[in-house]
Amino acid sequence: MKSFLFHEHTREQLNQKAAEGYMVVVALAATEQHGPHLPVYTDSLIGQFVATEAVEQAAKTVPILLCPLISIGCSDHHKQFGGTLSFSSSTYMQMLRDIGESLVSCGFRRIVFLNGHGGNEPIMHQTANDLAVKHPVWTASASYWSISREQLHRVNADEVGMVPGHAGGFETSVIMALREDLVATDLIVAEHSERAWINSGPPGTFIGRHLELTGSGGYTDAPHMATKERGERYLEAINHSVTAWLINVYDSMDSGERSMNRDK
Length: 264
Ligand SMILES: [Zn+2]
What we know:
Blueprint: H1 11-19, E1 23-28, H2 42-58, E2 64-66, H3 89-105, E3 110-115, H4 121-134, E4 138-143, H5 144-147, H6 149-154, H7 169-179, H8 228-263
Parallel strand pairs: 1-2, 1-3, 3-4
Zinc ion binds next to helix 2.
């Protein structure tokens, strides 16, 4: 049985893999408005592609499994535009916790959340923390753009706009590379009123501004510089970084566990 997909195994096979110390990856995404020109499944298309490619590559080196994508996220800040399916933050946290608890019940001790939507990020980190506090398990969590920041910088991903931004040049390029047929190119604009997005408060301060968490008009920057070739370059950089990150996380958990066992 060679599959790296959790859901292609039987319960006995999964029980065996849990006992062998396999690391399980849960990929998180969203179904939410992405401006007038991108499909609402944008974050999920990217999240599914990145998680599948990276886990498949990492599986050649470390024991690892990928769970089914969680394609609805915490997107309440996008609901005003329509086209958005969202869990509230408290429901999302409970849902993630329940998935983590399920994996713990299955016997898995190494759990990773790999994220592809900004609104999920703080809740994901909190849940990863809570699981490791409550159970004798190792958890890790990160968003793909944080993992690949350096590599994306090296391929000049910011040449098209904010990285990742929201439905701007970066995400438009990536969707052109993944599903060109889903991009409404006739609705792509060359100008965008770039209001200070999110906030520019004192360092370390979160400032929430009503209706200003999505970028002006529901997207962060004009997507007119987007091309399929750029998107392919960005995806290659992301896949490379996330694969290396997964192997690194596994090695950290494995050597951490071995040194704890030694100390007992
Ligand atoms: Zn997005």
